[in-house]
Design a protein that fits this description.
It is a single chain. The chain is an all-beta fold. The chain has a single domain (about 10-135), classed as Immunoglobulin-like. The protein is built from no helices and 13 strands. The chain has strands at about 10, 15-20, 25-35, 35-45, 45-50, 55-60, 65-70, 75-80, 85-90, 95-100, 105-110, 115-120, 130-135. The strands form two sheets. The chain has a seven-stranded antiparallel β-sheet, with no helix packed on it. Strands 3-4-5-6-9-12 form a six-stranded antiparallel β-sheet, with no helix packed on it.
């Protein structure tokens, strides 16, 4: 997977891709329209953050590149890459149980906190893509 040089883009399948973990300087793209929503991305080697309509959606520390990010009623799916292991936080429903899968393998059930945030760790290394799927139970 390659980094997203334009910082955020719409894919042919209707998903979005964002982030560039190879940047040395923090960069951002604002007011990116997708399906009637406005997105903002901030990204560089230390952090990648995505907001939709001014609200938190995704954050990784250190920075990552995310391809084919899709949010549906009961699941979130994306492919992530980065230079090293990342802590990823995504916005979901408040106080709900979810099952998390990386590369098709269940890594366990998790519960969101009262603000709906779910945090997971993903083992990454340069040139390795990891498929992530989070499904509401």
């Amino acid at each position: 997977m390659s980094v997203i040089n334009e910082l955020i883009r719409t894919e042919e399948n209707g998903s979005i891709s964002f982030g560039n973990y190879m940047l040395e300087v923090k960069s951002k793209a604002e007011d990116f329209e997708h399906d009637g929503d406005l997105y903002k991305v901030k990204t560089f080697h230390e952090i990648t953050k995505l907001e939709r309509n001014g609200m938190f959606v995704y954050e990784s520390v250190p920075g990552t590149s995310v391809n084919n990010f899709v949010v549906k009623n009961t699941e979130v799916t994306f492919t992530v890459s980065g230079a090293k292991d990342a802590q990823i936080t995504i916005q979901l429903e408040d106080d709900m149980d979810y099952e998390v899968f990386t590369d098709g393998i269940a890594v366990g059930g998790m519960k969101t906190n009262m603000s709906g945030k779910l945090s997971l760790s993903v083992e990454l290394s340069e040139g390795k893509d990891v498929d992530v799927k989070v499904v509401r139970k």
